[in-house]
């Protein structure tokens, strides 16, 4: 099982960042990642021959988070926590900006940019088409750009011309 230990150590941080960025609180993301890796360990003989074991773990972690939210809906009136707030997650400037995006856009950003999955792998993991992935990524990045530079001031900066 040394190969599982290497797999875990090499990927756990990226998986955690992706799950956290996709939405939720730090403790919930830690729990989801721990559960996903525990399931991967239990099925390691199958998971290790998967074309992308990290994508398998990410899918399980995302599903675990969704299951927690479903249980919360049954227990508590109202919507489950879908966004990271400054009160639940101190610090995180970019994380705070990501939290304002719709869930699917956060998931696409987390998988494509933080977990470094391809468009095809992201589409398969989320169960959507590749075009949907690229559309969500484009909209998410446009939204983030607008949040970071709402007045479009970068377009007003003078250009330097060589005389």
Automatic annotation (TrEMBL):
GO terms for biological process: DNA-templated transcription initiation. Keywords: DNA-binding, Sigma factor, Transcription, Transcription regulation. CDD domains: Sigma70_r4 (cd06171). Pfam families: Sigma70_r2 (PF04542), Sigma70_r4_2 (PF08281). GO terms for molecular function: DNA binding; sigma factor activity. The keyword Cell membrane does not apply. Gene3D superfamilies: 1.10.1740.10, Winged helix-like DNA-binding domain superfamily/Winged helix DNA-binding domain. The keyword Transcription regulation applies. SUPFAM superfamilies: Sigma2 domain of RNA polymerase sigma factors, Sigma3 and sigma4 domains of RNA polymerase sigma factors. Residues 98-154 form the HTH luxR-type domain. PANTHER family: ECF RNA POLYMERASE SIGMA FACTOR SIGM, RNA POLYMERASE ECF-TYPE SIGMA FACTO. Belongs to the sigma-70 factor family. ECF subfamily. This is RNA polymerase.
